[in-house]
Amino acid sequence: MSSGPRSPLSITEVTSKAQMARFIRLPMTLNAADPAWISPLISERQAALSPKSNPFFEHAEVQFWIASRDGRDVGRISAQIDALSPTDPQAPAGNFGMIAAEDDTEVFAALLATAEAWLKARGCVTALGPFNLSINEEVGLLVDGFDTPPMVMMGHDPAYVSRQIEAQGYAKAKDVYAYLSKMSDDMPPAVLRRVRRGPAPGVTLRMLDMKRYDAEVAALTDILNDAWSGNWGFTPTTEAETRQLAKSLRAVIDHRMVWFAEIDGETAGFVAALPNLNEAIADLGGKLAPFGWAKLLWRLKVARVKSIRVPLMGVKRKFASTHRGQVLPFQLIDAAATQARALSYEWCEMSWILEDNVAMRNICERAGARVYKTYRIYQKALA
Q1: Which of 119, 149, 196, 333 is placed for a possible disulfide with 124 were both Cys, Cβ 3.0 to 4.6 Å?
Q2: Which H or E run contains 162?
Q3: Separation of alpha carbons 79 and 81, rounded Å
Q4: Which residues share a beta bridge with 95?
Q5: Quick check: 129 and 70 in contact, CB under 8 A?
Q6: What SS3 state is found at 171?
Q7: Do the beta carbons of residue 101 and residue 65 sit within 8 Å?
Q8: Which DSSP helix (H) or strand (E) runs through 353?
Q9: Residue 365 main-chain phi, psi, to 5 deg
Q10: What pLDDT is attached to residue 1?
């Protein structure tokens, strides 16, 4: 027996605070029954999606939409064009992101068509995504590894989303990986012996100096933009973006888990490991009030979470091919891992890593890590 025609679907631009609140909360409703889902902090999402607090908007044009039916929100999406992203002037690309919806082909079709029309109207001939919002933030759609929660600043999607996106004509552009290792595991003996000999002449390892926090952040940005400049899709991180990230993390960052390497007095490389904030907020439902912030800090500083994530690591290109530079990543990892073990961390994620970044993948695998999550970046030609 037919249930009759469905009510029409409406797509609405997000233009108000109330609409943005709905946009932020929608995935929490959609994924409420998923045991691996962790609701992000609403206050953090508000800051990340606001031009007032996210420097990304200084060099990007962004639009958000909500899909609704019968007065109920059933999907969302964003489209963005980043002026700093590399693109072919003859075939400019734009991005979509923040995609979340019910398992409904009509909803996905309408959301993606809306984002594509917006990109085409601005001259784009290719759509790439999802990026939430840039390639330097949450990247790709989860396509493998659904059974475990995401770590801090990593995404989580239902398994059906990839099928729905591919049904709209999108194909794989690139996969990125999240590697996981036990802190009790160690590097292969040959690598460890070389690392434990100590730094080569002229090489110094040191922890993050919180008294020089701003200068340290500037040095980190300089290394990051140099070390990653040859990667697919590389988009430079502005100092304002790194400074905003560092500001937001200052309350939870542990200086013992961020290490710099200097070669002949020049800052040459770094590794940054962050406590897995998601582990601490899993039962807060996205809210800090009234006691969530105190509970969060207690869990991070006193009770301690059991996992960390390494989102950033790099060695300046001028040093990367030298003997001293080739050993630096392992020395930095070992320094951070030694501190992590002393602080009773049990697991470490290194992410995200491009599938064809052979050098970085080799470092992860020689450090004892294995791929446990795969995120996919999709592309589609806009006719």
Answers
A1: 119
A2: helix 160-167
A3: 7
A4: 80, 128
A5: no
A6: strand
A7: no
A8: strand 347-354
A9: -70, -35
A10: 41
